[in-house]
Amino acid sequence: MERDDPSARSRERSAQSLRQRLARTIESFRGSAVPDVPYRPDEHDRIVEERTFEGTRVERYWLNAPFSYAVITYDETDNQHLYHAVEPDLDRFERDVLETLYDDVRVPLLYTEHDGEPHEVLRVELRKRLERYGVDVDATGFYRLYYYLYRTFRGFGKIDPLMHDPDIEDISCDGYEVPLYAYHDRYQDIETNVSFGEADLDSYVVRMAQQAGRHISVGNPIVETTLPDGSRAELALGEEVTPHGSAFTIRKYSDEPFTPIDLLEFGTYSLDQMAYLWLAIEHNKNIVFAGGTASGKTTSLNAISMFLPPQSKLITIEDTRELSLHHDNWLSCVTRERLDEAANVTMYDLLRSALRHRPEYIIVGEVRGEEAITLFQAMNTGHTTLSTMHADSVQTVINRLENEPINVPRPMVQSLDILCVQRLARFGSERVRRAGTIAEIEGIDQRTGELDYTGAYRWDSATDSFEQGTKNLTEEIREERGWSKSELLRELQHRRQFLGFLKDRGITQYQQFTAMVNRYYATPEEVMARIDAAEADERDDPGAGSTSGGTSGADLRSG
C-alpha cells in the first residue's frame, strides 16, 4: 500500500519506536556475536517446530526444507481434507526486529548492485544489521529471521510455502479473510490455512503486479500477467469487480515442462495416439488442442511440440508466457498491454509480424478473436500451426471458429487437419485428464455444405481405454512420402516402440527426451537397431536394463 495510508503510518511509528528501544539497549548487548555458519540440522535446533492439528493426519512432507513443511489432515465431521502450511514461529522480540529489518534491508537489497547469489547477499545484509543492532542470536534464530526476509523480498510472501509444493498446480484467493484454496494432485481442491486481511491482500496484489512490470489500480482493477518465476496470475484489486475483496489465481509454472512420456504415464494419450501425432507434426499437419478449463490443453501443446524437427524455425505467440521448448531456432513472442501513451501489442499484431519472419511452425497459445483469421490464412499459405481453444467438443470448436467473435470462413476452417479435444474427468475416485476425441477435419460436404470430420480416436470412460476409428490422415502422409502401406505401418510401429522404450526407462526430463527425438530424426535406423538389441538383451536376461548395464537413454544419444 502507499505510504500515506493509515496502516502504513502506523507501521512507520511502530518501526521508529522499535529503533528507539533497540538504541537504548545496544550497550547491554555490546560484544554479541551473530553466527557466520551454514545451518546444520544435526548441530542446530530445528528452525520450524512440529505442530499438531485437529483431525486425522494423512501425511507430512517438506516444502522448503528446513524452513517449511505441509501437513494434510482429514476432518471426518466435514468429510474433507485440509492443507496446513507450517512455517517458523517467532517470539515477540523477533517479530519486532523483523519489522525493523524489513525497512532497513529493503533499500540495499533491492536497489544496490551486488556480486553473488541473492540468498548470500541477504545473509550478509542481515548479519550486518543484527550486529549493528547488537542483537545476540544463535544460528537457528538467525535463519528464522532470514527465512521471513527472503520470502518477502525474493519469494512469494505468505503463499511461499504453497509455491514450493510440487504437488500444487493452482492457488486461489477469493477475498479478504477467506482461506486460500489449492488444486493438489492427490486431494484436488483443498482448503489451506493461509489467508489475508484487507490491507495485506490489497498490498499483496499490487506488489505481484509491480513485480511482473504491470500496473493495477481501482481504475484498472483486473490484470493478467506472468510472475517472475513464469507462473501465470490473474489479479483483481478491490471490491468493484470482486465484491468479497481483492482476489488472485495463480497457475504455477513447472521448471520441468511435461514431455510426451509424461502424457503417456498420466494416461492422457496412448502410445498409438502419440505415434500418430508425432507423424502428423513432422509432416506439417495443423493441430488444435481444445478442452475446458484445466483439461491440460497447453500442457499437451507444449509436450507435443517437442516432436518438432530440430532445424525448423519456430515462433510462439502468447498472452502470458507458458510454453517452454527445448528448440534452438525458436522465437518467443508475448503480447503487451498499453503503457502510458504506448500502443497495445496484440496477438493479431504479433501473428502478422510472425509471418514476416518466415517460420515453418507457428504456435499460438490460445485462439480467441481476430487473430484466428490470420492464423487460418497462415495455414492456407503453407505455414504449419498449432494452437489451443476453449471448447468441449469437436462441434463446439467448429461453431466457435465460424461465429462471433472469431468468424473464420468455413472454407478456411477446412485447413485444420487434427482436432484433439481433452477432458478433465473422474475415473474412479481420481480426476484424470484424457484425450476424449481426436478428430480429423475432412472438408466441406458437397451435399449439405457442412464441415465433415471423422473420429480417429475416442476415449471410453467405462474402461479408461482408447478406441481407434477412421484415420485418413496417415494415408495422405503415405502418399506424400511415396511409402507403401507396409512402410507406413512400420514407421508407426517404430515410433510406438521408440516411445515405449523411453517410457519403460522413465525418460521424462525434457532435454533428454528432445535430444533422443533429434537423434531419431538424424539416424532412425541406427536408433531402432540399438533399441532392438537392448530389448533382445532384456528378453534373454530380464534383469538387464538401464539400471544394470543395458542400453539407456544416454546410450541412444551417443554416437
Describe the fold and architecture.
It is a single chain. With 559 residues, the protein is of the alpha/beta class. The protein has four domains: 6-47 and 88-154, no CATH class; 159-251, Beta-Lactamase (2-Layer Sandwich), CATH 3.30.450.380; 260-474, Rossmann fold, CATH 3.40.50.300; 483-559. The chain is built from 18 helices and 18 strands. A hairpin with a 4-residue loop joins strand 17 and strand 18. The longest helix has 24 residues, at 6-29. The protein is globular. The chain starts with 5 loop residues before the first helix and ends with a helix.
Count of discrete alpha- or pi-helical segments spanning 4 or more residues = 18
What is the tally of beta strands?
18
CATH fold group of the largest domain: Rossmann fold
Tell me the name of the CATH homologous superfamily of the largest domain.
P-loop containing nucleotide triphosphate hydrolases
Structural class determined from secondary elements: alpha/beta
| Radius of gyration over C-alpha positions, nearest whole angstrom | 28 Å
Percentage of helical residues?
25-40%
What is the domain tally? 4
* CATH architectural arrangement of the largest domain: 3-Layer(aba) Sandwich
**Straight-line N-to-C gap:** 59 Å
Reported for the largest beta sheet, the result is: 9 strands, mixed
- Widest sheet: strand ordering: 1-2-3-6-5-4-9-8-7
Mean pLDDT: 87
Q: What fraction of the residues are assigned to beta strands by DSSP?
A: 15-25%
Quick summary:
With about 550 residues, the protein is α/β, with parallel strands linked by helices. The chain is about 40% helix and about 20% strand.
